Structures are given as C-alpha cells and as structure tokens.
Amino acid sequence: MATIKDVARLAGVSPSTVSKHLNGGSVRQENLAAIRSAIAQLDYRVDPIARSLKTRRSYSIGILLPSLAAPFFSSVFLASDKVLREHGYHSLMSCYYADHGLERDYLGYLISAGVDGLIYVPENLTAEEFQELTARRNVPVVQVDRMIPGVDSDIVLSENKRSACLAVSRLIERGHRRIALVGGPNSVQTAKERLAGYLQALELNGILYDDALVLSGELSFAFGYQSFMELMSSGAPPTAIFSTNHDITMGIITAARERGLRIPGDVDVFGFDCVDVCAVMSPPLPVVHQPEEEMGRMAAAYLIQRLDGYSGEPRRTRLPCKLVL
Amino acid sequence: MATIKDVARLAGVSPSTVSKHLNGGSVRQENLAAIRSAIAQLDYRVDPIARSLKTRRSYSIGILLPSLAAPFFSSVFLASDKVLREHGYHSLMSCYYADHGLERDYLGYLISAGVDGLIYVPENLTAEEFQELTARRNVPVVQVDRMIPGVDSDIVLSENKRSACLAVSRLIERGHRRIALVGGPNSVQTAKERLAGYLQALELNGILYDDALVLSGELSFAFGYQSFMELMSSGAPPTAIFSTNHDITMGIITAARERGLRIPGDVDVFGFDCVDVCAVMSPPLPVVHQPEEEMGRMAAAYLIQRLDGYSGEPRRTRLPCKLVL
DNA sequence: TTGAAAGCGATACCAG
DNA sequence: CTGGTATCGCTTTCAA
Predict the structure, then answer these.
(1) pLDDT computed for residue A1 by the predictor
(2) Strand D neighbours among A 134-153, CB < 7 A
(3) pLDDT of residue B171
C-alpha cells in the first residue's frame, strides 16, 4: 500500500503539499498534475485510520438496531443513509438480534470504535448501562423508534399512543367491544406507548379493560401466531385484534387463515407498519403507517447538526402516523 | 479522553509498560495494581483507531449485503457474527439496498475503512469492478449466497441448481406439467443457477420449456405479486409455481389469496427460504431450505482462517439444501 | 504556495 | 520486567 510519502516522493513535492491537495486545498498547476499522476500511478488511497487518528473524525456513523428482518428498519435506514451520504458520511450497522448482551457489547464497541455519531434503536438497555458505556466519549447519539427512559439524547419517535388510540377507536367505531392487543414487551418503551393508546381508546369509549385480551411478548411472527390461536381458543374470543408490530401481524394473519377465519369478516385486524404488504391484501389490512423515511431523515439530520457543533437541548420529536385504511 | 500516557503517568510507569499489560503481558505485581487503578480512575479505554494504525488490525469484519429485510440474511449473519465474536471480531454491516452505485461505493469504503475481512453478498458488480476496488488491499473476502463469476475468493453457496431441480421434480411428481418459475434477475448468479435447476428438471422429465412461464425480476414482494397476477391472467396459466425467493413467494401467496385461489388446491407453489413462515401455513408451503446457519458459520470460519494466515487456493463450498415438505 | 517538524494514541524493539 | 525511542500514515501549524 502506497502512502502519502510515496506519492510525495514520486511527485517531487512534500507530503504536506499532497495532503493539502487531498483535502481540497489549492496547489500550483504543475504540482497538481504531478500529484495526480503519482496518485494514479501508485493507486494511492488515503488511509482513513491514520487520517482519523489525527483528525478525530472518521466520517462514519454507527447504526445499532435490534433486528435485520423488518421492513420498517430497512426504510428508516435507507432514508438516513441517503442523508448521511449527502454529508459525506457512511453508515456502519450492527445488529444485536434483540439480545441484551449483544446490545451492550455492540454499543460499547461502536462508541469506542471511532464512529462520529450513532443512530440507536434500543431494546433492553437501562439508562445506567447506557450512561456507563457512553460516558466521557463525545459521540452524539440519536435514538430512533424507541427510547430508553432517562437517557437524554435527541430522539425521533412516532406518535405511538395517539396512533394506537386512533386505530383502536376505529375498531370501536366499527362496532367492536372485545378488542385484543398483541404487542411487544413492556421493556420496549414504544410497546408501552401503544398499549397506553389502546387503553385510552377503551376508556374514552367506556369499554372495560379485559386482562385476558392483552398479550405482550416477543416481536415475532411466532408470537403473533401463538397469540392468535390462544385468543381464539378462549371462551370469549375477541372480535377484533390490534397488532402493534409487523412480524406479529403476519403471524396473526397466517393463523387466522389457518383457522379458516376471514379478515375482516370473522375477526377484524388492525396492524402497524408493513404498509406495502398490507395494502396488497384483499381487502387491504388497515394499518398504522409510521413515517419511516421522515424518521430516518430526521435522525440523520439531528446527528449531522450535532456533528456540526450544534449543542442545544436534546430534542424529542414525535412524528405523526397515518391510518391507512 | 484519557490516553495511555495519562495512565502511565498516574500509575508511575512508562507507557510501554501499560501497553504491555493491556496486551496481556505480565507486569510486576505492584505496577499491575497501580495500572489497574489508574485505568479505573481515568475510565481509560484504548483507542482502537490508534491501535490499529500501529497494528494494522481492527478486529472488525465488514458485512456487505443487498437487503436488510430478508430473514435469510438475518439467520446467516447471526450465525457468522457468533463465530466471529468467539474469535474476537465484531461485525460491521453495510446495506446497499440492491443499488449498484451503493454497492460499489460501500465495497470500496469497507475495504479501505480498515476492516480486517469482508463477508460479501454481491448483486450487480462485475468482476472488473470488484478487482479494481479490492486490488492491492490485503483484505480477504468471502462471498456468500451469491458470487460474481470470475472473482476468486472463498465462496459459500448452497446447491442451488440441484435443489431447484429437486423442488421442480417434486412438482412434476405431483402431476404438474405447466410449472412456472418466478425468480431473480439473471445478473444474480444464484438466480441463474436456480433457473438452471428448473430447466434441468423439465428436461429430465421431457417437459417442453415454455418461455411464457419464466419470469425474472426484482427480488421483491411486488414482483411476486405482479408475476402471479400476470401468470394467472394468461390464456394458459400454470398449475404450479416455483418461486426462488422469499419476498417473491410472499407476493405470490398474497396474490393467490386475493384471487381466491387455494394453495395447493388450485395452484401449487414451491418456495425458497423462509421456512418458519411457510411451516406455519396450512397446509405448510413446501420450500427449499438453505442451511443459513451453516453458511454463516462457514463463511466466518473461512475468513478467520485467512486472517490467521492460511493462504491456500480459494475454496468454493456448496452446501446442500433440504426440501421441507 | 510550500515544506519542515510536531503530534494524534498506541505498539514494538531493544537495551538495561 | 521496564522504559526510551522510533514508527504507523496523515494533518497541521508556521515560517519561509
């Protein structure tokens, strides 16, 4: 691997001059030509490691997320990546597969591995763990989609409670009184908020809360499938289900079909996310659509502002969702 | 941020001694204590950037993949991550969202960003582009799931042709003669191989190839959905469909249900991947199951061997798939 | 505009 | 075992 010195030597200038050119400075015509040719000849490329040791910038952004296989994240991070790239950054993702140990480890790793900033979708970390891992490091973090209560960072969320309430209200308007909720664990703040919205809708409509109708568990296809079977096997099954997660929704739909139950004929279902998939069903499955692209863009924008020196109070943005019926 | 010098000063030893301890060397008892206490007191952590400038090792492995939202990749990289971690490495993923420009850019970026090795799922790059981007760099690459023809690296694939042939043969055994294939673009080697298996099965069974029954396109839900509609709207629709991709399969199933066609009653479908999802349908959708975990583990193992100095010929491994009926 | 020299934070060699 | 010194590759004064 050629170094900047090799280039300098071949071009007959000093390393400083090469460096200057590399970083957009102006150089005398003839030197410019010589440097360019030397670079081409040697296939020289700057070593980002060495560069960032000196500059303390790597122009890479860490993305820490719990799961690869969710269209929601795919959309969010495609959008954030686009913005980041426009500003000269690259995204480096680490997936912790919803594992607490991995989440800790990768958070610590990314923070000290030299990323300039971090977009983080938390799941199981406590505020204390987070503080400990990020203390003294000067890496701005933006939490997306979820948040660790007690962690002060920029945050981009959607209006989970409000959207959930609207969705459930919709089901109530359609005449349902026994509405189940199948969602994520309470350790996930976002799941809690959606549950709160569900409860609010019940309350607003004078419907009594029935413990047996609320199932919280893994954000997975399997959990959705099992939950459906469980709910429908009970003595008093719900007439409608509000599912607060994509994978869960898919599990529910599959289970319903397997049981020979029509949606929405026999049981009504309201989902969250996965608009593309749901829109194509017949009839389309109504869902709460989160503004993935905007969430991604905004997270990236917040991060870039911090990297550009902005140091105001942590911002908490709640983006509105749409009900797609 | 405290540096090794700060620690040395506080501990009353030289940086070299601290470094020795940091890297597992033995140090006199009293110094050990002093160093440890200094590290704790200062919350010192080694700077991986500086370290890797010197050692030329970052203990990070790049993972370059075309898509986040595929359970297949999730399984593969969970498995590879596990192996890599056991050997002290971390995974850093970049997703290029099936975009050629992004694929190029991120490949170049990762290669020069200091990853020690790369696990790569290619899609659109030519061998020339690949060579150019990786030339002179000494980063071992393992291709997984797909391959760029002409690129000599370790490769872990599954037996695409054979599995496809078996799957289609199965459909033929069930009495089908008009079998459609819906799969990926020809630029993806793996898609080609599966098509080849399909053709082989037809030939072995004396079935004439019908151009109208073979649809190649994006590896997406939408393409599967459209393809199904197109196939079933034609004058002579197939009685069975072989789908060579998860997302495509989901699109097909959705479309079939929308049309009110029963699987396998009205139209038979054989899929690829997404075993968990397909197993839970009723009746379970038969699929070719690739050994994701083993693919991931093996890719990681190959990489680690290279990083440990192994320099034999590039290895091409074909892992057998299972038909899950 | 240019280049000599210092330094980013850590490791490695080698003499003591 | 210990520590001085050189060095990794690049950027950054600062004087010329």
Answers:
(1) 84
(2) none
(3) 97
Which residues neighbour A48 within 8 Å (Cβ) at sequence distance 6 or greater?
A58, A59, B112, B113, B114
The whole-number Å distance from A199's CA to D16's C1' is 76
- Any strand D atom closer than 7 Å to B78 CB: no
CB contact under 8 Å between B92 and A91, yes or no, is no
**pLDDT at B276 (0 to 100):** 74
Rounded average pLDDT over B134-143: 92
Q: Which residues of chain A have a CB within 8 Å of the CB of B251?
A: 280
B161: left (phi over 0), alpha (psi -120 to 50) or beta: alpha
In angstroms, the separation between the Cα of residue B209 and the nearest Cα of chain A is 31
Sign of CA dihedral B106, A66, B221, B324: positive
Q: Is residue A104 classed as helix, strand or coil in its secondary structure?
A: helix
Burial B158-194 (b: 16+ CB within 10 A, else e): bbbbbbbbbbbbbbbeeebeebbbbbbeebbbbbbbb
Q: Nearest to residue A36, comparing CAs of A58, A46, A21?
A: A21
Whether the pLDDT of residue B302 is over 90: the answer is yes
pTM for this model (two decimals): 0.93
Chain B nearest C-alpha distance from A302 (Å): 21
Percent with pLDDT over 90 in chain A: 86
Residue A184: is its pLDDT beyond 70? Answer: yes
Give CA A99 to chain center in angstroms.
16
Is the CB atom of residue A16 positioned under 7 angstroms from any atom of strand C? yes
Domains of chain B: 4-46 (no CATH), 58-152+292-324 (3.40.50.2300), 160-289 (3.40.50.2300)
What are the pLDDT digits (tens) for A10-27?
A: 999 999 999 999 999 999
What is the pLDDT confidence band of residue B1, given thresholds at 50, 70 and 90?
A: confident
Q: Which residues of A touch B94 (CB under 8 A)?
A: 90-93
Beta bridge partner(s), residue A114: none
CB distance B98 to B77 below 8 Å: no
Nucleic chain C: which protein residues 16-35 of B have CB below 7 A from it?
A: 16, 18-19, 22-23
pLDDT over 80 (residue A281): no
pLDDT at A280: 63
Residue-level pLDDT at B69? 83
Q: How far is the CA of A117 from the C1' of D5 (A)?
A: 36
CA A32 to chain centre: 44
Strand C close to B264 by CB, under 7 A: no
Residue A279 has pLDDT above 90, yes or no: no
pLDDT at A28 over 90: yes
- Residues B81-118 as b/e (b if ≥16 CB within 10 A, e otherwise) read bbbbbeeebbbbbbbbbbeeebbbbbbbbbbbbbbbbb
